[in-house]
Amino acid sequence: MSRETALGVVGATVAMVVVGGAIALRMLFGPGDEDAMERVHKARMEDEIKLEATYRRESEFIPSTDGARVFTQTWYPTIAPKGIVVVLHGVNGHSGLCTAHFNVLLRDGFIAAALDFRGFGRSAGRHGYIASISDLADDTLAFVRRLRAQHPDQSIFLCGGSMGGLVAVHVILKAPSLFHGLVLQAPALHIHAAARPPWIVEAVARILYAIAPKLPILGAVDARPIDPNDAAQVALARVKQTDPLFYTGRMRLGTGLALLTATEAIAHRMHEVALPMLVQHGDCDIIVRVDGSRRFHAAAASTDKTLHVYSGGGHVLWVEPDAIAKPFFEDLTRWLQERV
């Protein structure tokens, strides 16, 4: 065999391997809808079950604008409701992890409502995968409009934590007139330059995204080792280990790019937010830096806006010790009570 022929055979073999690999990646991690019925019947959180002993809960699946199945739940206080608070969960979580919020809101007389974003909890979609934050905002609006039709006389507040805060801002920019106020808790509104990969890595990721957007390839949101002396970290680690609906895998390629695209999309639109708003953030949050909340608070056009920064607080303020968690919830309920 001549050298030219040998090189041709090697080249053809390499090409076949590359093409075959691309096809395999697309089959396993390519775009497309998934029903994900295996998550629908997973056990509920113990805290949810306990809460239902006191408060009435309704749950249903609603269709999104493009037909995806979205799980929703609504909780009712034992007294005449003062308003509705829609709580939006963070990345990898689901609405069942919002029980601490539900408990506080219900106790204070608010209807508490939440949905599982696509790809999370009991909603359709590959676990941990987000195609677009705009899709999640549209699903939220579909749910809120149903709540508005069912409770036309109630004020509706939107409360989003971490990624839920990012979704909340996109929701408000789409339909501000539906809401009476906005609460953001450690919102993921800004990705620090130091947290972004080198441009060449990002460019390759965008190319790979076209083939395998669901590929779990990116680093975890919080890959720190657990500090056994940090009660908040230990509590979160326990949830991740025991909750069958919590996504524990690596971040999917499409999810990472969706978050990046969504933060870039609002970077120059923060001044358009004019609703009454409360922003809450811990100054020791290393997952989402407090700088983004300060920047948003300063840029928003709202004349009624409040920023609370909690000294020593991490990313998930409601699982912190009482010295932080108690004022965190007190600030939330006081702010709501003053605006209904």
UniProtKB/TrEMBL annotation:
InterPro entries found in the cross-reference section: AB_hydrolase_1, AB_hydrolase_fold, Hydrolase_4, MAG_DAG_Lipase
What keyword terms does UniProt attach to this protein? Answer: Membrane, Transmembrane, Transmembrane helix
Report if keyword Transmembrane helix is assigned.
Answer: yes
Superkingdom field:
Eukaryota
Gene3D superfamilies, A to Z:
alpha/beta hydrolase
Domain (Serine aminopeptidase S33) spans 80-322
- Bilayer-crossing residues are 6-29
Keyword Nucleus (UniProt): no
Instruction: Please name the PANTHER family in this protein's record.
Output: PHOSPHOLIPASE-RELATED
The molecule here is called Aste57867_24479 protein
